[in-house]
Amino acid sequence: MLLTQLPEDVLYQVLLYLGAKDLGRLSQVSKSLHGFVNRDAVWKKLAKECLNTGITRNGTDIYPDIPLKERVRIAQNWFNGVCKSSLPLKWKTKLLPWLQLDMDVLYISQAAHIRGYHLDRDSKKLRRSPSEIYSGHQGDVCRFVLSDSHLISAGSDGNILVHSRRGGVSLRLSGHSQEVNCLDSKDGLIISGSRDRTARVWTLSSYSPRATIAMFDRVWSVAISPTLSSFVTGTACCENFFPLRIWDVERSACLCHLGSDFRRGAGVLDILFESPFQLLTCGYDTFVRLWDLRLSPQRCVMEWEEPHDSTLYCIQTDGNNMIASGSSLYGVVRLWDKRQTKCLQVFQLSRDAASSPVYCLRLSSSHLYAALASALHSLDFRQNTTSS
């Protein structure tokens, strides 16, 4: 019996034992096998084991419009560090930019403005002129987040601006007495943290905070749980308070703290939920840590140390096996495979004598975007390195 004569369900089970190269070669045998092998179902198990294919740990497909075979090919480049570097944007004044990626639009904050640049559908290059510009702050934009209908920004002027993505500023939230360092928003809920040592709970329908929480330390990072019932704050760790604390949204009460051995000054600069129970953190103590809220809050379940003892400003994840981190020196970006303890790949983006931190990272299926003090860097992982 020929391979093509097997029932499809049996053939599918056979192909689950093949790797990417073997599947690629098999697809070249005949037209019928080519059509079958190229089905997403054949590649899904393999894709879940690879880096940044868009298949999350719970099986959700983030990029359903891109064939899984192509994503697995690109994933090999992420693993091996094969990419092409470019500088889509440069500016003269040193800034602390922030990024958000929404489909084919990359948003970047530059001083008091946020600009949205369309990415070319095929080349993925930024178009020269921004398609959207959001303004209104009297100082620099510190952070901003996106929803389907709004862009919400936090500024050094102490204000939070809720911009309608259809045009105009629809709401100005005032209450913080110093710069608003961090911000998160989900389903109409807004959490902000400030240098004024408070965290505030807001909604899109009110001009004043629903709750103000005294943190007794500068707040560097916040993240809302996917369940919307709690949020996490990361502080500077300059006072006698744990820098990572979880709060109940309704009662504004501290539920618990994470960790027990942070040294003084080990502030938390970025927090990222991967699921309702798992979150990643990084900061001045040079570690990326993974916490599981179903287990003991005293210890993280995994940690990865920056080899050169540099502060970690930001993290991103593919929702499965890969973490990207941005360091404080020389624009260093590292890729980590969660199944390993050592760094997988390292990219030094800043070639200037003056060092710059990586302030923000964003990922697509094929690109990594990094915001440094005076430039936006892009790493394109779509390079052709195999014949399969």
Automatic annotation (TrEMBL):
One of its GO terms (biological process) is SCF-dependent proteasomal ubiquitin-dependent protein catabolic process. GO terms for cellular component: SCF ubiquitin ligase complex. It comes from the Eukaryota. Residues 1-46 form the F-box domain. The keyword Nucleotide-binding does not apply. SMART domains: FBOX, WD40. Gene3D superfamilies: 1.20.1280.50, YVTN repeat-like/Quinoprotein amine dehydrogenase (2.130.10.10). This is F-box and WD repeat domain containing 4. It comes from Nothobranchius furzeri (Turquoise killifish). The gene is FBXW4.
